[in-house]
Each structure stands twice: as C-alpha cells, then as structure tokens.
Amino acid sequence: MHAPAPYVHLSIPFPILVFLAFVTLSWVVFVVLDGIGKSEPKWIDETQRSLGLSKLNSAFFVSGAILWMALFSLIFLSLWWFLIQVFLFDFSADGEPLREWHYHLSRIAAFVTVLGAITALPITLLRLQNASRSLGNTKINSALEGLSARREVLRAIPKKQVEHSTEYVTDWERDTNRHLAALDALFAIVEDYPTEGPRITRMLCHYVRTESRLMSDYNSVYQELSPAGKTRIFPRHVPPEVRCAMELLASIGHPNGLNRPDLTSQINLERSKLLNVQLPGAHFSGASFADSDLRFVNFTCASVVGTSFAGAYLQGAQLNGVMFHRNNFRLTEFFASKSHYAHLEEASFRDVEFDDINQISFAFPQIFGDGSVKFRSGISEENWPAHWPTEILSDTEFSAAYERWKRQRQNR
C-alpha cells in the first residue's frame, strides 16, 4: 500500500522581512507622490493611460505597481530556486530518477499557475484597454455620421402659371438637432476615453474651420431703423452648430469643464469666421486664431497665454480683463474707427510685440504693460504710457503693479 502523497505547498526561500521591505517602500512612494500632487513624472501618467487607469490616483497606482513587482519577483525567483534545488540536489547517490516526481511536478504546476495569474494582470488590463479603444472608435464614427446628417423637408413654391396657388417640392437641409447631438457625443467621448482627447479636439477644430467659412453668410449684416430714428447695425452670427462646437472647445481646458489644459495648445482655428461668439472666461491658452475673423467676440477674462492672434480681426471684441502673455499680434487689427475698436478695459500685456504704436495706442489709458512689450517700429519715451514700468518685471512684481494700477483706476 502506497503512502499518501505529501501536502502540496509553495515555499518561498526569502524571509518575511523582504516582503515587508517592499510594503514599506510602496507606502513611502505613496506618501511622496501624494504630497507632490501633479508634479509626478510624465511617464507615470502615460503608463496609466496605456493601461486604462488614468482616473486612478497616481500615488496609489505606483504603490500598487511596486507591490505587484515585489510579488512577481518573489514568486519568479522561488520557482527557479525550487527547480535548481530539485534537479541539482534531489538526485539519489546512485543516479536514480527523482524521488516523488509526481509531488515535485505538482509544486512546479502550482508555482507556474500563481506566476501566470500575477503576470496576467497587466496583460488583462491592456486587452481591456484595447477593447475600450475599439468601442471608442465605434462611438466616434457614429458621432461623425451625425455631423453630416441632413433631413428631408417639404418646401412650398408658388406656381407661376396659377395665382394664389403653391406646390410642394422635396428638399434636403442640415439636420441641426442631430449635429448638436453629435457634437455633445464627441465631448462625452473625451470624458470616457481621455486618450482620444487630441483626436477629438482636432475634429472639432476642423468642423469649426470648415463650417464657419461655408456658412459665413448666416444671419448676414443688415441695418434697421430703431423707433428713435437711429440706425442699428446687427452683425452676423455663427450658426448654432459652430457656436456649440466653440463652447465645447472653450471648456476643454476650463477647471469646471474637462480640465484638460494639455489639449488647448492643439486648438487650431486659423482662418475661421467666428463673429459675435460669446465665450467669457474661455480657456484658449496656446491656441491659434491666426487670420480669423473675431469681430464682436466676447473673450472677457479669458485665458489666452501663448495664443496666436496673428492677422486676426478683433474690432468690436470684448477683451476686458484679459491677461495677454507671449501672444502673437503680428498684423492683428484692434482698431477700425472711433466707434469700432476692441474693448480692452483693464487688460494687461507681457512679453508681446506689436507692429507699431498705432496698432494699440488707442487703448493705452485702459491697459497695463511693462518693459517686455515691444514695438517693431519703435516707440519714443514721450509716447510710452506713463503708468507702464519701463523695466521688465518678474511675475510677482508684475501682478503687484497691475493690481495697484487697477485700484488706482477704481479710486479715481
């Protein structure tokens, strides 16, 4: 009668202190990363996104990764130590086969099973991410179909041969409701699939550039006499679909929106017609509005650090309280006439260069700057605004001087 097989167990040839050391290391890393907040290395964020864990706390992710590597290393090294021990030291003196081979085989199978389960974790996460990416592509394609949707309508046309008679013909027009729903769906995809943010940002920009130019005659400029006998001028507006797309782009980098400031630098709206768009407080830092028609837009207190306005038309624009910094104003038009100019009340300028003094001199009393503001054609000392420091101020010095100047204006 054979003796019962011994109980199969996995032995790790390392003291418990080794594992406790890894646990302590992961805890220290968690405390350090949680303390520095958003200053952790970029590769951590990139790794999280590749695994589909971008919403997980970075400190918790790194700590978990350290524990996973510790467990994997211990099991992997234990398996190899067991194999060496069996094949090198467990032979009989006369060279007979291994004793209790079925028991050793069971232990090897158990080691491999545990090691495979540990290794499968990141592989499973990658496969889930790929499946999620495929689902995201399906949603994007569905939304893009909505952006080209048209609907069938009946139009009444008077008959030429018969008076007071009409006939109905079938026609096709843009389905505005489906366009708006598709734009909202694209925005929601960025929330669910953060890695698709750059791609969808480019799509929205292309949509705005194309549609704003194709429908530039929408609600064209016209004049009307008011009851008081004065002429009122109504500037044309962008279509509702373009206005919706602009609102979505403006909220991408906003703290109360997507809060993705990394995407605003990819906003390219060059040669767009965006008349009378109302986006106070928008976040367009690093974006490009080069050669765009921005007359009568409302960018009050908007964030436009590093934004390019080269060749843009800004007459009538509301730019009050905007802090311009490192912007491109080459050939930008702020002023057209005494009744048609950009409103720059309490705006500030730093590290910018204008073509000449006439480009911005109309607003000198209402704006603030320092010695970092340059003019390509030069500026004399007598034309330099009296309330502008001539030296280049640091960030702290500029903020203090700017706030002091605003208080002085309010106390006048």
Can you offer a commentary on this structure?
- This protein is 42% helix and 10% strand.
- By secondary structure, it is mostly helical.
- Among the domains are: 16-93 and 101-145, no CATH class; 197-346, no CATH class.
- The chain has a three-stranded parallel β-sheet, covered by helices on one side. It has a two-stranded antiparallel ribbon with strand order 1-2. Strands 3-4 form a two-stranded antiparallel ribbon.
- α4 (101-147) packs antiparallel against α5.
List keywords for this structure.
flat, two-stranded antiparallel sheet, 10% strand, 8 helices, three-stranded parallel beta sheet, mainly alpha, single chain, 412 residues, 42% helix
Give a quick precis of the structure.
With 412 residues, this protein is mostly helical.
Figure out the total of helices. Answer: 8
The percentage of residues in β strands lies in 5-15%
The run of helices and strands is: HHHHEEHHEEHEEEEEEEH
Structural class: mainly alpha
Largest sheet: 3 strands, parallel
* Helical fraction: 40-55%
Number of DSSP strands?
11
Order of strands across the widest beta sheet?
5-8-10
Taking all Cα atoms into account, the compactness measure Rg is 33 Å
User: How confident is the prediction overall: mean pLDDT?
Assistant: 80
Low-confidence stretches: 218-234
Query: What sort of overall outline do the alpha carbons produce when their principal axes are compared?
Result: flat
State the separation between the terminal residues, measured CA to CA.
109 Å
